From TrEMBL:
Organism of derivation: Enterococcus innesii
Protein name in the entry: Penicillin-binding protein 3
PANTHER family (alphabetical): PENICILLIN-BINDING PROTEIN 3 (PTHR30627:SF25), PEPTIDOGLYCAN D,D-TRANSPEPTIDASE (PTHR30627)
Family: Belongs to the transpeptidase family.
Keywords tagged on the record: Membrane, Transmembrane, Transmembrane helix
Lineage summary: Bacteria, Bacillati, Bacillota, Bacilli, Lactobacillales
Residue span(s) of domain Penicillin-binding protein dimerisation: 177-334
Length: 682
């Protein structure tokens, strides 16, 4: 009994084996967790490698670096499809170049492990690209990526070029080019047309080899104002073969053709008036990748309007090419169509411009910096929009040499700018408007004379050393005298007499601050930089067409249309289809009074436009000179203006400007040929 008691009080002996078996599952758990973590890590690394090779594959296509593809493809897939790596690269190059592929983009990229093969991943993505026929979308790509020695490569097949391709399939393209619409004048004479051009090219096989080839290329470069590098680059294009015609540039037909050259007739854009209408009509340029980014409907091998109306109406003029891109078998039999599009020719644009008047106006400017605008004032039709000096839009479209382009760029008279849309202080031609406002508000009495002493005047000593100056020392001046002699002092005094509020109220009835409905870039006409003159001097200067007043020649012609329309302002229009628009500004009797004085500017022997009387044309006119200078006592740049219109039938109205006129030059002196033409035809 005591023995049993002792055994109950003693602690039981330890059993090591029990504790060993209890600890073993925990050890296995630790080992298993490490193996699982390694597997997850390895899987992630493999997936990252698969994604990387797919992105590299897509980037090579997008960047058109097809030679980079060879390192990304498994040898087994190439062999099973009957291609070498170089042949795959060449096939991509030929197909994508042939269809004018640009801007390849991939979206919805997915890479997932293959459930059946741990060494493979499946991928898919959607592709899109722009071709010479437009955008090709909804291309669904899929395939596999194989891992071998921790390196991922794509299992290539032809369906990775375009879905549906297999074996030795090819891609065919047929293009039905849209005809670009023409730009026509009011008489249907072409201002931009599709004419016959002559394409200079070379036949590589006829150039010879070695030194002979080098000599022939040099002779071609010298004869046609090309560089040898440019010819070499043309010959290095992937599609070039010995017997194929490789185009170089558009030239005039010639009998002097060096060895290896050839001429081909082609259709292209031509501009019959050349320099005479360049800023208005503009020119074309080849479509770039940047253009396609902005408008994916553009064809990669097409042309787009770069300036002028060619740019403003590019979409309407361009139309849309038609054609078909299809998958064919190796014998050329069509299997499926990737893209098919019906051709839509461009629309013709008819202008109000008179081509002959445009040419006459441009020639009259004699390559000096200036512009001429002519309207048919009763309708607002713009007959002439000429700017000088100019450039040749045919060269710009067909291929201009660097030497010729540099000459334009370095010309200080800026031939690329449209002076008819460039704002200037209008000078004394604007006195006509000031006079009309003064007559309307009663501050100007037409027969009342003002005594003026000398050639300069200031209101009082508060003007400091500033004076208004005039050219003719006439002691007593009324409205007619002020317009005939172009008297700045009279107009300055009358503007001060009416005051800023009345003057601005009269000006506000014109077109200041308005955006004209014209496809020409220009800023609205302005009265002053601020809403108020804040200066009597600035108010006085504005009254005779200077100060901060700014109107371009088109806006001047629009404002001055009131004198040919009994006080009605007719808005300018450039397209025949545009609706005519006008508004009443001045009373008919006000305009009649001023027009009598404007005819005297021509007929009176003292008139500033009296030289035009010799033309024996019924004219009303006003000349102007706007001086730009830093200080009052120095001689500044002088811009010469002429505003003239048909005083009998109001058939035409012109505003001409000569920028920085030199001694013995004026817009009036250059006008006779144009005025004679207008009088005969309008």
């Amino acid at each position: 009994m005591s023995e049993n008691r002792r055994s109950r009080n003693e602690k039981p002996a330890k059993k090591p084996k029990r504790f060993v078996w209890l600890a073993l599952p925990a050890a296995l758990l630790v080992l298993g967790g490490g193996y699982y973590g390694y597997t997850v890590y390895q899987n992630r690394q493999e997936e990252a490698a698969a994604k990387k090779v797919l992105n590299s594959f897509i980037d090579a296509i997008s960047d058109q670096k097809y030679s980079d593809l060879s390192a990304l493809l498994t040898e087994e897939s190439l062999e099973s499809n009957g291609f070498t790596a170089d042949e795959v690269s060449a096939k991509y190059e030929a197909i994508f170049t042939g269809i004018g592929a640009e801007s390849f983009k991939a979206s919805g990229i997915e890479v997932t492990p293959d459930d059946k093969d741990s060494d493979q991943f499946n991928f898919q993505y959607n592709g899109s690209l722009t071709t010479s026929l437009g955008e090709l979308t909804e291309l669904s790509y899929s395939g596999t990526i194989t891992l071998n020695d921790d390196q991922a490569k794509i299992d290539w097949s032809p369906q990775l070029i375009f879905p549906g391709m297999e074996g030795q399939d090819k891609i065919s393209i047929s293009v039905d080019n849209a005809t670009r619409g023409e730009i026509l004048d009011r008489n249907n004479e072409p201002l931009a047309e599709n004419g016959t051009l002559y394409q200079l090219g070379v036949i590589p096989g006829q150039l010879g080899t070695g030194d002979e080839k080098t000599a022939n290329i040099k002779a071609i470069a010298e004869r046609f104002d090309l560089t040898e590098d440019a010819i070499d680059q043309a010959l290095a294009q992937s599609w070039v073969q010995d017997e194929l015609f490789v185009p170089l540039k558009i030239i005039e037909p010639t009998d002097e053709m060096p060895t290896g050259t050839s001429l081909k007739e082609t259709t292209g854009r031509t501009y019959p008036l050349g320099e005479a209408a360049a800023q208005l009509i503009g020119y074309l340029g080849n479509v770039t990748a940047e253009d396609i980014e902005k408008d994916e409907t553009l064809a990669s091998n097409g042309q787009i309007g770069r300036s002028g109306l060619e740019a403003a109406f590019d979409k309407e003029l361009r139309g849309e090419n038609g054609g078909k891109i299809a998958i064919t078998d190796e014998d050329g039999a069509e299997k499926s169509v990737l893209l098919e599009k019906e051709r839509a020719d461009g629309k013709d644009i008819q202008l109000t411009i008179d081509a002959q008047a445009q040419k006459t106006a441009f020639d009259a400017l004699q390559n000096q910096a200036g512009s001429t605008v002519v309207t048919e004032p009763k309708t607002g039709d713009l007959l002439v929009l000429a700017s000088s000096p100019s450039y040749d839009p045919n060269k710009m479209t067909q291929g201009i040499s660097q030497e010729d382009y540099d000459a334009y760029e370095q010309n200080e008279d800026l031939p690329f700018i449209s002076r008819f849309a460039t704002a200037y202080a209008p000078g004394s031609t604007f006195k006509t408007i000031t006079a009309a406002i003064g007559l309307e508000n009663g501050t100007i009495a037409p027969t009342q004379s003002i005594a003026i002493d000398g050639l300069k005047w200031q209101k009082d000593s508060s003007w400091g050393d500033y004076f208004v100056t005039r050219v003719s020392d006439v002691a007593s001046v009324n409205l007619k005298d002020a317009l005939v002699y172009s008297d700045n002092i009279y107009m300055a005094q009358q503007t001060l007499a009416m005051g800023e509020d009345a003057f601005r109220n009269g000006l506000s009835k014109l077109i200041f601050g308005e955006t004209l409905d014209l496809p020409i870039a220009m800023n609205p006409a302005q009265i002053s930089n601020e809403d108020s003159f804040n200066s009597e001097i600035l108010l006085a200067d504005t009254g005779y067409g200077q100060g901060e007043l700014l109107l371009n020649p088109i806006q001047q012609a629009a404002a001055y249309s009131v004198f040919a329309n009994q006080g009605k302002l007719v808005y300018p229009r450039l397209l025949k289809e545009t609706e005519q628009k006008d508004k009443e500004v001045f009373k008919a009797e006000t305009i009649e009074q001023i027009n009598q004085d404007l005819t005297a500017v021509v007929s009176d022997a003292n008139g500033t436009a009296h030289s035009l009387a010799a033309l024996n044309i019924p004219l009303a006119a006003k000349t102007g000179t706007a001086e730009i200078k830093e200080k009052q006592d120095e001689k500044g740049q002088e811009n010469s203006f002429l505003f003239a219109f048909d005083s009998q039938d109001q058939g035409f109205l012109m505003v001409s400007m000569l920028e920085d006129r030199q001694d013995n030059q004026s817009a009036t002196g250059l006008a006779p040929d144009l005025l004679t033409y207008l009088a005969e035809h309008y």
